[in-house]
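Marked as duplicate of an earlier ticket. Keeping the data here for the record.
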Amino acid sequence: MRTVYLGLGSNLGARRRNLSAARRRLRQGGVRIRRLSTVIETEPWGVTDQPRFLNQVVEAEWPGTARQLLRLAKEVEREGGRRPSRRWGPRAIDVDILLFGEERVNQRDLVIPHPRIAERPFVIESLRELGLKRVVRS
């Protein structure tokens, strides 16, 4: 089992319910959730002409590889109603792999630590809330 940190976000529909459904789907897919940060409402990032987000960080244990976790995250997004749209556009649910143990990955479709952790203060705040004192930079 590896300790992982996932970022969840939603700015369409019943945002709080979307976060809850995503956590349930992650559990069903084999993610063992240990702790949850406070849900924070944030301004959109990247594309600002859209509704505000609810965001949360999840600390969990995962038995598989980073690539397997990415596949599960994408499945959770699809099941949660995420549809292809413009980059950083509105979405019912977003699941980002923030940290995957101490592992570093640098592939076209998967970069860990998440490359924009430092640009999103709510992520740093949430990771610290969960007791992570040192946030790894990519």
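See parent ticket for discussion. Residues 15-28 form the longest helix (14 residues).
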